[in-house]
Amino acid sequence: MDKYAVIGWPVEHSVSPQMQSAGIKELGLNAVYEKIPVQPHELGEAVSRLRQEYAGWNITVPHKETILPHLDKVEEAAARIGSVNTVVNEAGSLKGYSTDGYGLSAALSESFGIHPLGTRFVFIGAGGAARATAAYFAANGAGKISIINRTRAKADAIAELIRELEPGCRTQVAQPDEKPLLQSLMQETDVIIQATSLGLKNDDPLPLDLGLAAAGTPVYDMIYRATPFLTEAQKHGCPTANGASMLLYQGARSLELWTGREAPVEAMRQALYASLGAARAKAS
Ligand code: NDP
């Protein structure tokens, strides 16, 4: 029997086991997918054990960057961003991949019919998820990527990475209080991606004033539920979607990397959305 897992700290909240188990079942594989809590100081030891026993695994916070030195190979796109969320164990040799960019791209295609080529993106947030997905869009022909972040240095670092990797992709950086600049960025974009952690807690402020956006601009929030930011976007006449579909497609891509089979997306979606609903009910 093949064993797969998600490692992280904390990892208790992860719904990847429900989603991946549904995919495994639908494909008729003799395999299991587990949740393994791994504290930061245990990572090296955990990877040694996983190398012996597991065919592949997902990596979540806080190990996405620190796992790189423990791997034998890293696909070019993941090496460029310095972050891995999927490991494939090829007979004891560990190869790392990042499927977050693919996941968001598939989600934007599904919800809004948006594809990276020539598209202008505004990212709000400059953490690991924004970095991975912005680099993916740049590599796939994005026309322009603007990054709005509280901490300017982190947005500058993503813009610099993009300019190095894809000089043809225009970049711009702003902070949330630069109103005239924000207004022009928000008016001249094809899509707005909310990539901060604001909205995870009920009393969080909105990450940005959506009054600055043109009505009709699609808004995607990486958080996996209907956030106040998305409600506000709808009030401004913007079509919206939340991060559940990104979570789905990044996981589907992981399953494809492990098995070489096309992922049964609808079976995985059903299990994932049911688990997210149950998790929400438990939290409220
Ligand atoms: P990071 O911790 O790396 O980045 C957090 C980002 O949020 C930074 O830009 C940070 O700004 C900003 N931020 C946090 N608190 C505040 C605040 N009080 N005011 C303004 N900005 C703030 O997180 P990730 O990049 O890993 O994740 C970002 C979001 O994306 C999370 O909500 C996560 O759940 C979600 N996500 C969803 C995925 C999916 O599959 N749907 C996959 C991965 C992530 P600063 O730089 O100034 O600190």
Overview of this protein structure:
This protein is of the alpha/beta class. The chain has helices at 16-27, 43-53, 76-81, 100-112, 128-139, 152-165, 179-187, 228-235, 244-259, 265-283, and strands at residues 2-8, 31-37, 56-59, 73-74, 86-90, 93-97, 120-124, 144-148, 170-174, 191-194, 219-221, 240-242. NADPH dihydro-nicotinamide-adenine-dinucleotide phosphate binds next to helix 4, helix 5 and helix 9. The site of NADPH dihydro-nicotinamide-adenine-dinucleotide phosphate has 24 residues, from helix 4, helix 5 and helix 9.
Highlighted features:
single chain, alpha/beta, 6-stranded parallel beta sheet, about 280 residues, 10 helices, 6-stranded mixed beta sheet, 12 strands, about 40% helix, binds NADPH dihydro-nicotinamide-adenine-dinucleotide phosphate
How is this structure best summarized?
The protein is of the alpha/beta class and 284 residues long. It has helices spanning 16-27, 43-53, 76-81, 100-112, 128-139, 152-165, 179-187, 228-235, 244-259, 265-283, and strands at 2-8, 31-37, 56-59, 73-74, 86-90, 93-97, 120-124, 144-148, 170-174, 191-194, 219-221, 240-242. NADPH dihydro-nicotinamide-adenine-dinucleotide phosphate (NDP) binds at residues 100, 103, 125-130, 149-151, 154, 195-198, 200, 222-224, 243, 246-247, 250.
Q: H/E order of the elements?
A: EHEHEEHEEHEHEHEHEEHEHH
Identify the bound ligands.
NADPH dihydro-nicotinamide-adenine-dinucleotide phosphate
Based on secondary structure, the structural category is alpha/beta
Helical percentage = 40-55%
Count the DSSP helices: 10
Number of strands: 12
